[in-house]
Amino acid sequence: MDAQRSIRRQISCVGIGLHSGNKVNLTLKPAPADYGIRFRRTDLGDHEVPATVHHLAGIQLATGLASNEVSVETVEHLLAALVSVGIDNIIIELNSPEVPIMDGSAAPFIYLIHEAGVKQLQVPRKYQKIVRPIAISRGDKRIALFPSDHFKVTYSISYDHPLLRHQSRTLRITEESFAEEVAPARTFTFLKDVEMLRQNGLALGGSLENAIVLGETGVLNNALRFDDEFVRHKLLDAVGDLALVGFPVIVHLVAHRAGHALHTEFAARILEETHAWRLVQSPIDTAVLPAAAAAANRIAPRLAN
Ligand SMILES: [Zn+2]
Predict the structure, then answer these.
(1) pTM for this one?
(2) I need a surface site. Which of 8, 227, 230, 264 has the fewest CB within 10 A?
(3) Are 85 and 110 in contact (CB under 8 A)?
């Protein structure tokens, strides 16, 4: 039996909101079994917003949640960090609508969680195991899930930019692989979009300290952390957005040119397609249907191109 997890002790940090540019206090607090991941706005009477697709709010540049008009925004990097460490239950206190952007990656959150320590709770964890493929596409953007014995993500991107014509990566997501190969990858934006964002009152906290900025032919930052840091960050976003299904998933996620809007639409679709998954207490206690596995092998390489 795998036990549910929380953090051992409370921990705090201060950062700025990417869009507001305001200073934000973030505190992670332990929570009991079956509590789930919930945001709590300390500036609004401790109103709670659970991190599930049922509370999805407007999705444009980042993923937002809301409950009774109370919102939290830019949740995906923190959620990805929590999921990768296997934290099922936690209270995330914020005194502002935005989760602080930190350095634009999930690495500072992984550090914070490790500092707080991981605590095993005496209640079994439930995994969501996909037994039949689910897919949606919008134009040339595609996203699909296939049965797998572990959590794996294949992501590919292609943009009209010399550095980003094509990047693709497949990774089995474990605590270690995520921390080393995905968490440090920073969010990125195009210089030509920055001015438009600012005119709309967005990205006011954005800088080369918390985002990779792409000019016409290269990056404005001194150096990349990985040659393919861009696709690694998309993989990070997908892991964070998929966390909104509310359970750790045992699945192969394949996405091509997707983004927060498609990730989160897909997370909601997964919960609707109840015939396509079951809840299990161990990643390996349900046999994968042979027909579904064969379909995954046929479709995955095509999606990854
Ligand atoms: Zn991101």
Answers:
(1) 0.91
(2) 227
(3) yes
